[in-house]
């Protein structure tokens, strides 16, 4: 017996209303978080010949974020010995506090706004992800350094207050052992599942930061590998599941000792929609430039379709 058309319509309306009442990840942003970029911003050097090409590459992103300001940003970054030291090294740490102060990295805190958190969504994500067998360190008090504030400055400029709450998610990519790209990618999938189960109609963006190719010490200090970086961006867009299988040694060999930061981009990519097929995210902007303080700057925005 056929189901009456009005019953089908009612069910569809109920499903649509339920979906609209839940949180969803609308886009992901990927960017380097070079500390010298923050210093250039803070000291008014954006228009200087060295820095002007870098900041020009983010102008489309600033226009995009004004039109697509989220309700919450889940920002994946690595701490640079400000919140954590060699005394305590969490592999994954989620900030569940109501606010996070800019860190003093040796020359005073950056003159940027206090980062407001979203404790309810952060606690929900922690609960869900831990129940999915990912061990997270829950942090109720920590300062946030350039790894988090430089990406915010690149997209939002220098506002009196950041336009939305931010959930900091710190990943250890400094002291070995560091998490594999595969684990980071699967963690992103678990985060996507957690966000989709949060019962508030929030538009959430997930940002992956760090990289691209660079090495800060040793005989290869100053290494930049354009070919590796561009191939990484191509595969991050088109085949992230395969990219997630890349072993650590490939990052170190091809992208330098600090190139391992790129595994954090896989968390953000795993949190997006289908990795292939009609649900593949749309590229809203892509940018690449070298050098910026002996570092390759990469940037990408993907929108869920």
Automatic annotation (TrEMBL):
Principal EC category: oxidoreductase
Extradiol ring-cleavage dioxygenase class III enzyme subunit B domain mapped to chain residues: 29-297
CDD domains, sorted: PCA_45_Dioxygenase_B
Keywords from the named record: Oxidoreductase
Entry's Gene Ontology molecular function annotations: ferrous iron binding; protocatechuate 4,5-dioxygenase activity
Annotated EC: 1.13.11.8
Xref: NCBIfam families: PRK13364.1, PRK13365.1, PRK13366.1
Protein name (Swiss-Prot/TrEMBL): Protocatechuate 4,5-dioxygenase beta chain
Lineage: Bacteria, Pseudomonadati, Pseudomonadota, Betaproteobacteria, Nitrosomonadales
GN (gene name): ligB
């Amino acid at each position: 017996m056929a189901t009456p058309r009005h019953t089908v319509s009612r069910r569809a309306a109920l499903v649509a209303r339920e979906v609209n009442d839940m949180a969803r990840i609308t886009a992901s942003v990927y960017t380097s978080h070079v500390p010298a970029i923050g210093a250039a911003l803070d000291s008014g050097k954006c228009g200087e010949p060295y820095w002007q090409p870098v900041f020009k590459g983010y102008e489309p992103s600033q226009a995009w974020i004004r039109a697509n300001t989220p309700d919450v940003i889940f920002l994946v970054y690595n701490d640079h010995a400000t919140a954590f030291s060699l005394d305590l090294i969490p592999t994954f740490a989620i900030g569940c506090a109501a606010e996070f102060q800019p860190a003093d990295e040796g020359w005073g805190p950056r003159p940027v706004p206090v980062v407001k958190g979203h404790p309810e969504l952060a606690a929900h994500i922690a609960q869900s992800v831990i129940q999915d067998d990912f061990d997270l360190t829950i942090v109720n008090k920590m300062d946030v350094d350039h790894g988090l504030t430089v990406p915010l400055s690149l997209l939002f400029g220098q506002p009196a207050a950041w336009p939305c709450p931010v959930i900091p998610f710190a990943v250890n990519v400094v002291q070995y052992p560091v998490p594999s790209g595969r684990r980071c990618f699967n963690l992103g999938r678990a985060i996507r599942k957690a966000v989709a189960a949060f019962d508030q109609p929030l538009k959430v963006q997930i940002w992956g930061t760090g990289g691209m190719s660079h090495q800060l010490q040793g005989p290869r200090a100053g290494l930049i590998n354009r070919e590796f970086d561009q191939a990484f961006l191509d595969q991050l867009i088109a085949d992230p599941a395969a990219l997630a299988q890349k072993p650590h040694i490939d990052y170190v060999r091809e992208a330098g000792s600090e190139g391992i930061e790129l595994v954090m981009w896989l968390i953000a990519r795993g949190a997006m929609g289908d990795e292939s097929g009609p649900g593949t995210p749309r590229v809203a902007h892509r940018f690449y430039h070298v050098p910026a303080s002996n570092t390759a700057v990469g940037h990408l925005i993907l929108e869920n379709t």
